[in-house]
Design a protein that fits this description.
The longest helix is centred in the first third of the chain and has 13 residues. 32% of the residues lie in helices and 25% in strands. The protein is globular. It has nine helices and ten strands.
Amino acid sequence: MVAVVKVGVLGAGSIGSVVAEALRDGLVPGAELGGVVDPALSPAGLPMCALPELLSVSDLVVEAAGQRALADAGPQVLSAGCDLLVVSVGALAADGLLEKLLAAGPGAVQLSTGAIGGLDLLRSAALLGRFERVVIETTKKASSLVQPWMSAEEADALREATAPVELRRGPAREITAAFPKSANVAASVALAVRDWDVVEAAVIADPAAPLTSHVITAAGPAGEYRFEIRNRPSPQTPTSSRVVPYAVLSALEALAAPRAVFR
């Protein structure tokens, strides 16, 4: 008899609540909900608890609480012997955080694919040799891209924009830090190609964008690639894509009940 994987969820927002409810309702073969930690939220019908209690009953913890929560709680999760499935991949743009997590074991670090695909092919191609060029351009609804670092005038201009505007272009680390809720994908691409320095990222605001678009182009010794992903935004959190919690559930299913799946 295969043991059931007990899954804890860190964060009960638009991502964590969907994941927790699916686990509670038995929709992930081989896995069940251990508990949910979120000091700010307490959704009805979910078993809320404190982090120490969660770690005592979980085999694996899904981080769905944001970049700061990953940096603060991630090492505790791993040192308690729980595996950690990271949703806020953009946090790993911070110098030393990935290394800190990897050293915190004995728990293992897993990364969610989140809102994009093609990462498996990029990882494979990177084994052959360094990419010559990798670019990811993200286009989102203008109003969802307002950032705390913007001046009041910049924020108002963005909310009132009537045409697409490129907000920023630069190294993946820089763009991920500037748009922490919208550019996790840039970090995912950089980690897939195993080279932060080769990845250029851009964030484009489009007031008329019905979908969130990620266009990835890459060239290297293995070939040339172009992926375009167009996701519906989350109804609750427009900075995130609706598919993200389902990417987490897909990862949990693969981890809990291995079968013939692509990795």
